[in-house]
Amino acid sequence: MEPQILISPDKNSIVKIEKGELVSFLKDKEELIHQKGQPGWRNSDTEMFPVIGPTEATDFKVSTPKGNAIQDQHGLLRELSYTLMESGKNFAAFQKDYAANTLIKNSKFPEKSPEEKLSWPYDFRFKKLYELSNNSLKITFEVEAEKGMPFMLGYHPAFKLSGDYSEICKTKAHEVSLQKIMDGGSTAFPVLNTQEIKLIKNKGYNISIKTKGFDNFMLWTEVPNMLCIEPITAYPYTEGEPPLSEKLFSISNGKDSFEVVIAPFKDPLIKSVYL
């Protein structure tokens, strides 16, 4: 599959997509996305589905109304390949299809997981649509599945940082420093019950991330040059709850839609407060 290049109507924003993965978002020639090969993470974006979080504590088994499913961390969707369905100057649509109980090779086996094959007892179709405007990049996810299927969904993009620990994440109720996020470790830092978060920088573009259908975020990094800001349907590391508790799962309506809008912005009033 050839890379897809999206260009905004005003020509000031350029997005590059490789096999469904957002690998570049340039705004006035400033790169906003973590680049592969740089310290921190081998990818630039991915999805977490139909589970979020580690599955070792449940022996890699996830309970569903149709029996146990074998799942590794963050689910099996990432092991499937996207098909390009449609594209244009400023949009591209991708799709993954899964047939119930199909065994999928686990890329983490054997180095990082004892499970060679993964499976899920439901059919599903997962769509990812990019739309680039002058002001933002909208990413829409559509999940088509049997009504009643339990699932968790998370989007996992990584954003480029300066490397000097100066960035913060801000919501209406909270402000989180990069160091605090790093101190949170592998479980990621939760920012719950909100549909919008802002990445505030000392230089260049700040980034607003608005969502529909997710209602939560978790923040993760181990290095100061990148940050994963992850919209999630549920935070999987809640104290007092058993691993992969039934409470964490959404229930399919047959067709469910989720939205993430990534909007670069410059606001001198906001920046001046955090310098």
Give a description of the structure.
The protein has 275 residues and is mainly beta. The chain has a single domain, classed as Beta-galactosidase, Chain A, domain 5, CATH 2.70.98.10. 5% of the residues lie in helices and 44% in strands. The chain is built from two helices and 24 strands. The chain has helices spanning 178-183, 268-274; strands at residues 4-7, 13-18, 21-27, 30-31, 45-48, 61-64, 67-70, 83-87, 91-98, 104-105, 117-118, 124-132, 137-145, 150-151, 154-160, 168-170, 175-177, 189-192, 196-200, 206-212, 216-220, 226-232, 250-251, 255-265. The strands form six sheets. It has a nine-stranded antiparallel beta sheet with strand order 8-9-12-13-24-20-19-16-17. A five-stranded antiparallel beta sheet has the order 5-15-22-21-18. Strand 21 and strand 22 (226-232) form a beta hairpin. Residues 271-275 have low confidence and may be disordered.
